């Protein structure tokens, strides 16, 4: 039986999924969180919710039958599943195109009221990136299968639970030199996870449908500025060294051999393109859904984990070295 206040979330163990579970269950929505391993992720997910409002479902195989069984019980489906690098051939297409296509088909078949899909900002021009092409293919499939779907295209989503700012804090705390790709001029509009969560919550509450929305924070920041803000926050001074493209490619080829790559060739290609609003779609601000949290203010709340002396250490007046 379909529950009008039930939300089905795919990709519930990431920072956005956990934040959504907190938000929806706090507001008396019942959430069904899908995970591939309850034993590995169950405790992490369960601790996010109000008691009695969360149900975990383990799915090892994403078949029509398994998905349909869940879709019959909910009014809203949110797909957050995505990967930043592929370890298997064609894995981008499987995760970003084939799976969203299957989910949107089943959502349509089972008369789900809203299908919300998380894509990515700034990918329209990145025709040389497998990641970008798979994301765009996924968007097309969803619009074909579920025309009234809502596709969200956020810039970098950051928080204390992310793999972006925390990785750079860790690296900048130990490395004397940090390479800059494309001179660090690539622009981003980072959005805090709580702001994105509020946007998704408002979309569900106001029953928005048939929209593609670019989700951005309140400021445009270059990659170099991001690193400088992180360095200031963790109270370190480091050399930021621009790398020629041929060296950057060697760098990426070596990094992508790691179990969890710091950089891949595909990500290096993506870094050529600004991660800002395209003006092809509406933004969250057009729907009066503001994102107010500023990057520097928010990272200062958790950067003490990588700061010499810890949370209450005095900040030094440091000079940050970077080569133009």
How would you briefly describe this protein structure?
This protein has helices at residues 15-26, 38-46, 64-71, 91-109, 130-145, 165-174, 193-205, 223-234, 245-255, 265-270, 295-299; strands at 6-10, 30-35, 54-58, 76-79, 114-118, 150-154, 157-158, 177-180, 187-188, 191-192, 211-215, 221-222, 239-242, 282-283, 321-322. The protein has 324 residues and is of the alpha/beta class. The chain has a domain at 6-162 and 189-215: NAD(P)-binding Rossmann-like Domain (Rossmann fold), CATH 3.40.50.720.
Structural commentary:
This protein is an alpha/beta fold. It has a domain at 6-162 and 189-215: NAD(P)-binding Rossmann-like Domain (Rossmann fold), CATH 3.40.50.720. Helices cover 37% and strands 17% of the residues. It has eleven helices and 15 strands. The chain has helices at residues 15-26, 38-46, 64-71, 91-109, 130-145, 165-174, 193-205, 223-234, 245-255, 265-270, 295-299; strands at residues 6-10, 30-35, 54-58, 76-79, 114-118, 150-154, 157-158, 177-180, 187-188, 191-192, 211-215, 221-222, 239-242, 282-283, 321-322. The strands form four sheets. The chain has an eight-stranded parallel sheet, sandwiched between helices. Helix 5 links the parallel strand 5 and strand 6. Helix 3 (64-71) packs across helix 4 (91-109), helix 4 packs parallel to helix 5 and helix 6 crosses helix 8 (223-234). The longest helix is centred in the first third of the chain and has 19 residues, at 91-109. The protein is globular and about 55 Å long. The model has no long low-confidence stretch (mean pLDDT 92).
